[in-house]
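Give me C-alpha cells for this 205-residue protein.
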Amino acid sequence: MGMAAVITILLIISCSAKIMDKGNGSYADDLNFENKYYINHSEFTITDTSKIKKIGSVEKSRRLGKGNGVFEIEGYSNHSFIAVKDIESFTGFSVYGEYKGGGRLISPPQDISYSRVNQIKIYKEMELINDIQGQDVQKFVSFFEQKGLPNEFRVDNPPQYHVIFLTDASIEYKYPISEKDGQYGMPMWESKLPKEIAEFFKPRQ
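Here you go.
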C-alpha cells in the first residue's frame, strides 16, 4: 500500500474518531482562528520549527483553551493548515486543518511516497528515542511496508510509540505504534510489523 492510500485511511480513522457535538455539528478538538473553523489532524505533526512562523493566537478552543500560539506553515500561506502550540503533544505542536462542514474530509496536505522519506524520528511517549538517518531510513521503511494482515495484533493499552516520517515537505506524517511482548504493530489495522523492526525501537545513545 502506498503512502497516499495509508494517509487517506488515517484521515478517515482520525476524523471519524473525533467526538461530534450533536448540538452544533462541531468537533471536540477544534479551534477558531481568523474567522475560520479548524479541527485537529492527529496524523500530522511539526518537528522542524524553521518551517513555521507565529501569526497569532487561538481565539477559541474547547481542548486547548484561548491564547495558544498559532503558526503559519511553510507552503500554506492560505492557512488551510496551521500549527498550534500544544503542551500535550510530544512534539510540542499539533496540526489543524480548516473545516468547512458538509461532512467532507480535508485532503492530505501533500501526496508523497515512501521513497521521499529522508529521516525518521521515533518517540516513546514524550521522549525522542531514535533519529534515523542515512541508509537506515529505507531499511526501516522496508520493514514498515511489510506489516501483516489486519486483526492479528490486538493491544488494550494506548500506543506507546509514535513514528514520524520526514520528507522535504513542511508537514510530517505520524504513525502510532504499539508493543506487546517484544512484538511491534500498528493499532489502526491491528497489524504486526516484522520482528526485525524491533532494533529501531531501542533507545540510541
